[in-house]
Amino acid sequence: MDNSQSGNVDDTASRPQHAFFDTLLSRQSHWPLAEPGPSETELGLIFDAAMRAPDHGALRPWRFALIRDDARAEFGDVLVDVAARREPAKPRAELEHRRQLAYTAPLIIVIAAAPCADSHVPETEQLLSVGAAAMNMLNAIHALGYGGFWATGADAYDPNLRAALDFEPSERVLGFIFVGTPKSREPSAVRASHSLYVREWLGRASI
Predict the structure, then answer these.
(1) What class of enzyme is it (predicted)?
(2) What are the structural domains of the chain?
(3) What is the pTM of this model?
């Protein structure tokens, strides 16, 4: 029987759409993360997804740096060094635990912005573009079967860390995405209903 005549709708075409939303709505943050991390081909897909972020003025304000393999040891040194400079009164031994952050995932992607001060595009919009690129990356990481965790904090905003990671003085580190394989696949926590955060505007109230 012809489904169009019977009133039934063939859902075959909607299955890829359903699969997409199943993936999108199952994303969650994972911490800590284990080996393996993404392959070079998968990393290419992750960064290509970042390039699809909205970008007013085609400024491409995003900058990324990869930290992995043996470089994590030196990154651990950097984390201790910048914390010591930030808290000079604290004994260095009390800051050594910060080194372990470098080993909580096989790959760390440093997220930074290179805002163009001469552009007509407000800096806020440029930073939002970097945030959108980071979210695209997190979704791509999840879709490939890995886990991601976006961390910020004092280290991200410390100019000494920015310099140690070879970013320009005009560039701003906005955080780190830790990437790897989740140690557990527990279902995500129940999220709040979107209805709590959405309202419909029905026009201007009479004055």
Answers:
(1) oxidoreductase
(2) 30-68+104-184 (3.40.109.10)
(3) 0.88
